[in-house]
Design a protein that fits this description.
By secondary structure, this protein is an all-alpha fold. It has a domain of 39 residues. The radius of gyration is 32 Å and the shape is rod-shaped. The N and C termini lie far apart (81 Å).
């Protein structure tokens, strides 16, 4: 993990989110320019889809032995 410390002028303290977004944008732009990628942890997701069971077939044909 890295920590980035920056010093800003006093007017930057009034809008800290704007300053943070600016630095994040500039870092992202520089990383893309130099081909630097930050890997994210990969996860395998397995979905078990439970389907509604089919109705049992009750339409049986009689065999010759049953007649």
């Amino acid at each position: 993990n890295y920590l980035l410390l920056v010093w800003v002028a006093h007017y930057g303290l009034r809008r800290p989110n704007r300053i943070k977004n600016y630095y994040n944008w500039e870092l992202d732009t520089a990383f893309k320019k130099y081909g630097i990628e930050i890997p994210f942890p990969q996860r395998d997701v397995h979905l078990n889809i439970v389907r509604k069971p089919k109705e049992p077939n009750t339409d049986f044909k009689k065999t010759e032995n049953e007649e």
